[in-house]
Amino acid sequence: MIFRTLKFLVRIILVVVRRWEIEGAENIPGSDGVVLVANHVSYWDPVVVICAFKRKVYFMAKAELFKIPVVGYVVGISGAFPVRRDRTDRNAIRTALRLLEEGEVVGVFPEGTRSHSGEMLKPHLGAAMLALKSGAPVLPVAVSGTRGFWGKIRVRVGRPIPVESFKTGSRGDLESLSDLAMSRIGALLGE
Question: What is the model's pLDDT at position 81?
């Protein structure tokens, strides 16, 4: 209840103050598990992505956020789950795979952190690994305009990337799928 109320209020602010625009909403799968991947330049990115989807997005969020009063509470009620970035976090992987198996949307920022320059960073392989292990498609999402408090925010949703052709699960497949997802995000950003 609290989360739905917060999401409703934030959506109003995004529409009225930030002239929020979503393109490609028809590419959002209505059901089944999907690994949502997006670029990351601002703390607002996960908020904007969560508000752009009718379906709940379960983001992997750095574990440190859950320790901050108020922020940790809001992150938790949003459906996010902690991931330790200093090592392979098997609990986070199990949680993500369970959610995908249950037909949920799992959100990942493949860059692993915010890009301070605005340019996309080299992706980590975790999102691709989740997609290949679960068989869920990868949904590229580009977010722009989230830096600062003014100006238009735009969310562009690309077509889902099926993972069948990457099924060997080799490191080369993980790298290829990660690079393809990031190139699709770049294209959506107009880079």
Answer: 93
